[in-house]
């Protein structure tokens, strides 16, 4: 049980670097990543969405110390990521195939995040069985 918990913590810690890093970069540098010139309003919106991404990553990191009892928070964060992935998928259907980095994001959002959520649920259930503690 403890080994699996540690592996889950390590996986989440490493994977949350993606939203924290890209979110922070977007907040600080805006659209500079794409090199596209955009309006001030589009730039503001991009930075806002980057801040949300940063917040999601920090939220995942906040589950690490007691990941086995943070099921509600973990599920909410996963839901937000999946909704973003579904939105990206709609964009793919409406405007075409984006860059490989964006396709990688889509895979993380629609496959990796739900798998991690299922893994967290497994760890939480095993913890509850072993210690008689319900999820929080």
Automatic annotation (TrEMBL):
Keyword match Nucleotidyltransferase: no
Entry superkingdom: Bacteria
Assigned keywords, A-Z: Membrane, Transmembrane, Transmembrane helix
Coiled-coil blocks: none
Listed InterPro entries: DUF4345
Membrane spanning residue stretches: 12-33, 45-64, 76-94, 100-119
Protein name, per record: DUF4345 domain-containing protein
Organism the protein comes from: Microvirga arsenatis
Lineage: Bacteria, Pseudomonadati, Pseudomonadota, Alphaproteobacteria, Hyphomicrobiales
């Amino acid at each position: 049980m403890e080994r699996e918990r540690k592996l889950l913590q390590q996986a989440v810690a490493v994977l949350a670097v993606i939203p924290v890093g890209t979110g922070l970069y977007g907040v600080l540098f805006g659209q500079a990543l794409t090199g596209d010139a955009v309006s001030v309003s589009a730039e503001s919106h991009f930075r806002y969405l980057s801040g949300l991404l940063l917040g999601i990553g920090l939220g995942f990191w906040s589950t690490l110390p007691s990941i086995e009892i943070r099921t509600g928070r973990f599920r909410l964060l996963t839901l937000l990521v999946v909704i973003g992935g579904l939105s990206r998928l709609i964009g793919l259907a409406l405007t075409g195939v984006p860059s490989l980095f964006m396709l990688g994001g889509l895979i993380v959002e629609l496959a990796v995040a739900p798998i991690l959520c299922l893994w967290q649920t497994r760890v939480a259930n095993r913890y509850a069985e072993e210690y008689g503690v319900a999820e929080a």
